[in-house]
Amino acid sequence: MKKAIVLLSGGLDSVLAARLMLQQGIEVEAISFVTSFCNCSQAELSANELGVRLRLIDIFAEIMGIVKHPKHGYGKGINPCIDCHALMLKKAKEYMLETEASFVVTGEVLGQRPMSQQLRAMEIIEKESGLEGLLIRPLSAKLLKPTIPEQNGWIDREKLLDISGRSRKFQIALAKELNINKYSAPAGGCLLTDSMFAKKMRDLLAHIPDPSWHDVQLLKLGRHFRLSDKLKIVVARNDEENKRLLSLLEKGDVMFMVADQKGPLSVCKGEINRQQQSAAAAITARYSDDKGKSGIVMSNGEGKEEVLSVQPMDDVEIGMLRI
Predict the structure, then answer these.
(1) Rounded-to-integer distance, Cα 78 and Cα 43, Å
(2) How many whole angstroms separate alpha carbon 175 and alpha carbon 66?
(3) Are 237 and 264 in contact (CB under 8 A)?
């Protein structure tokens, strides 16, 4: 029995790719990558449904290096898809060799993604990963060159597919036929492709050249405003984000909240002066239920508090500061 390493995101295509290998008697072990830009929870659910082992591999540091300096450029957001896919496949090859597997499998579909799944891009990714001949894309295999596993008879090429394009109608029908129910929606992909997240990421990189995991997590929450090159304020949008912001507080952060606690929590990160404290309070008041009438409490997180009386910042000024 041959063993394959399957890149499992939890999306429909990767789940189908894994199932097609299992149907051919291939031993499957799945891997999923922790990047801070995608959610691994669906991969875990899908691995359980498939009955395969899942290994999570943290590549946050490497991904951040690629985001800052992509060899093959960005997509519409700040997504270095070709470089990112090549990195993941390099890591997959390392794990393949470590576990004595025979080849690597992905759920890529020819022509589905505008940047990374065109034929030329797929060839570049395969070459740069060092997996030439050992990378199987079962959903489009019949439209691609035969691989070593196919040529050697490890897998039957006739049982692979010839899907292309952006429609997922065939995959959805096949999933129903195979009784596959647990997979993520196509829209739940990488945050780097999201235009609003991309703006916040570009601002972060412009002011913090080497952001931490913590810095990136903060980008996923609230409204962001730039008060100076060294100061940013994040305003929560609901109670759940209030809780998440509290969990991400670090030493040196300054917190603002409505005195009667009916409204958002805001956090300032960076060097802050007295004028900027008033501006941060005014922004917080703008999004509070009582528009700051009960006062805005400023706290340094070490027990020191002060109540500020401010007028809500007007929408024109807020618009100028918003990232």
Answers:
(1) 24
(2) 34
(3) yes
Name the residue with tokens 């794990």. 95
| Tens of pLDDT, residues 55-95 | 999 999 999 999 999 999 999 999 999 999 999 999 999 99
Query: pLDDT category, 39, cuts 50, 70, 90?
Result: confident
CATH 3.40.50.1360 fits 3-191, yes or no: no
Determine the Cα–Cα distance for residues 313 and 285; give it in Å rounded to an integer: 7
Domain ranges of the chain: 3-191, 221-321
| Pair 12, 186: CB distance under 8 Å | yes
CA distances from 288 to 257, 261, 277, 321 (A): 9, 9, 17, 18
How far apart, in whole angstroms, are the C-alpha atoms of residue 119 and residue 137?
A: 12
Q: Which two tokens stand for residue 237?
A: 């949008």
